[in-house]
Amino acid sequence: MKEQESALKKKVLDQFLSGENLFGKNGALSPILKEFLEESLQAEMDEHLRDEDKGWSSGNKRNGKGTKTVKSNVGEVTIDTPEDRHSSFEPKIIEKRQRILADNLEEQIIALYGMGNSLRDISAHIREMYDTEVSTQVISDITDRVIPKVKEWQNRPLEEVYCIVWLDAMHFKVREEGKVRHKALYNVLGINKSGRKEILGMYLSESEGANFWLQVLSDLQHRGVSDILIACTDNLTGFPEAIHSVFPKTEIQLCIVHQIRNSLKYVASKEQKEFARDLKLVYGADTKDLAESALLDLEEKWGKKYPVVLRSWNSNWERLSAYFAYTKSIRKMIYTTNAVEGYHRQVRKVTKTKGAFTSDMALLKLVYLATRRIEKKWSSPLHNWGLTVQQLAIKFEGRLKLDIN
Fold it and tell me: Where are the stretches annotated Disordered (predicted)?
């Protein structure tokens, strides 16, 4: 016995010093882990038969053993699992269909997936780090455990009032019925009255329109939103009509940056610099009156040459110029959709390696995990939010109640 103990200690020490896995396939402590797990399962079976109130007299009793291999962050181990005649035994230490023993291994797999790693990359990482083989199918099953969290997050209650909301889309490829389809993932980023950013929702669609936006805005309303002060968007088809049918008092600010980009597409390249310089006098004016005066000058100079561009500015002017009603600090936030585009840039770091997603849910899983990680950085209010929210409370009197005693 002493010789066996001495040999075990030596093997443990040798493997420890060489960096080998003590609990791996040939690890010195692997038999101890196996023995511990099997004894724990036997004890659970004894308790199950004792507490079932049917017991031996009911005819339920032990019915041989099965085997299963479980993975853990210290390697894998094959164990004998007790079975009962009625198949009513539900062990706790290792559940019936459980193949991953350690919770932190599952957490690491989901974290690696959320950072954009492929299933094969994750499998290789687990093998290298823990000397444990985890198939891509098992990894896929583990990441699917996120699905209930995705659905819960998509349906979570929201606050009553959001000061500013930005809407913009990301575009992805998704396989459906053997075909690759292009889909837009519309994300809604909001600022609550505490000045903190929050993704209110993400919605997949192949096309936009008033009906689609009505569904999105109705979803926000059903989850508790009663008012949105300012909505900032690109010129989304059907959005103004939809938002005013659900939130009739919301002010719409169209993205100036998108409008400028779209305008310059239709200006001859040799004249773009001059046109852009004249256009800056419009959107960079100190007041709306000065901006409208500059817009008239722009039309007089360029209107005949670029009538479509000027017609776009004039027809959208009321929604393009909404930001002139605010101080410069608020103007900076609302005249562009940069806030939500910044969020999109962070998401793309995770999704850029993907070709086509296997399903809508595969896409939503990954974006959800990326979003949860991004939102951890949004722990503080926006810079100088105390001053900003007071200005908004004055502008939207009665609609934004501040928590001041």
Answer: 47-69
